[in-house]
Design a protein that fits this description.
The protein has 137 residues and is mainly α. The protein has helices at 11-45, 50-76, 95-109, 112-118, 123-136.
Amino acid sequence: MSIGKCECLNADVKTYLEGALIRYIRDIQKDVAEFAKAAREYKAINPELSNHYSRLVESQNTYIEKIQDAKGAIKELPICEAESGNPHNPGRLTVPEQHQLKIAKDTLRMPDAMVGVMGGPTKEQAREIIKKLESKK
């Protein structure tokens, strides 16, 4: 992923953005529907304002179309893998890797019964995680 122009997205980020845009579009469509209903009721009372309300509804629909275009653009972006490691200090682990290493070390200190209750990695998985992350340091 480049900083200036987005060429690809991490899968989790892409899913989050698509979901956020879908929720945003639904909220706007709900607001437009409520506004159109109120406009119809008000037009019955004041027919001279009907043109003004129809222009407002059209502008909201144009806005929704622009958001849907943005959603389509996000959908077309390819998925890229997140860069691993700390870009500022290549010899250091990233924060998620540090947490994973800490959890793995804590798992090895636990009794077997407690490992099953806690729901984290098994002791074998913890040893593999430690071996993998310690080799990165």
